[in-house]
């Protein structure tokens, strides 16, 4: 089902014996656990082959990012470490997944100037495009990094594990020189749920698992496969009116969503409190109108409705007013209920609404509900073990 991304030994993987490499006719190579593991268990930790810091301007230019990472791999003499990553040779390149063949060719030609053959430049570019991960570290830096064993992990829209960036030297400055963190973050793979012995470990290549199947398909297209459908997917794009009655609704709802998102972005870019407050209130007004227009037109758990409720609830909660927070609580409940149908129980996507619901319930005087959200939040954070704190004392060679 998923494009196979790696072929190699697990001998160097930490912790030894935790993961097994298996190969099947249906899925090719994949990583499976060798024993039962509980949620929150670290399954894999490894340094990158190479990594580059992502800058905002690069976020929409994937081939430029891939080319920069390839350049680092070449300069560090690590091209040989990519030899067993998919694709292994130029003959297996799938040019049908390229958004821009001309841009790809230009990037490959630039890499040739760094001393590698044209066929190897093209292979290396697609190796990075198919296998590199985008990770964040505790210092709020975003990285694009390539990992030898992490590249074995298959995608699932219902993953049982998560990938995290990890500064191995964060709690031990004396080890910074030996860990290699200066060349990028370590990769930590952590279980999000109980995984039984022999089961495959999967992660999501898609950042937003609450996204519709069409949005996830766009995000996965360059990997060469489509997302699997889940029970929650039909609601995310569902209309409750006939096709002939949609046209006016589509235009009106789309306009409100665009206006709301624009005001939200202006609020986050504002440098003074008054402008931020004004723009947040403007966005809240647009989101509220969107929800009114969506009534009896969109499924209550349509992705636009959940998005609007989350942002409207955020603005109401940030006001700090008891009545506003009380009115925000039903919105937070709906957001959490919708997300829980699409994301893992301990997904980091649940952290913002859980924090928002906890704050709203506390201010509204709903102590029992606040207690419930506090327990749920603590459990999620314990599973995620943000920053891989339980690994911070390990010395990596």
UniProtKB/TrEMBL annotation:
PROSITE patterns per UniProt: SET
Residues covered by the SET domain: 17-206
Species, as recorded: Chrysotila carterae
GO terms for cellular component: nucleus
Pfam family for this entry, one: SET
Source superkingdom: Eukaryota
Entry-linked InterPro entries: H3K4_H4K5_MeTrfase, SET_dom, SET_dom_sf
Identification of the protein by name: SET domain-containing protein
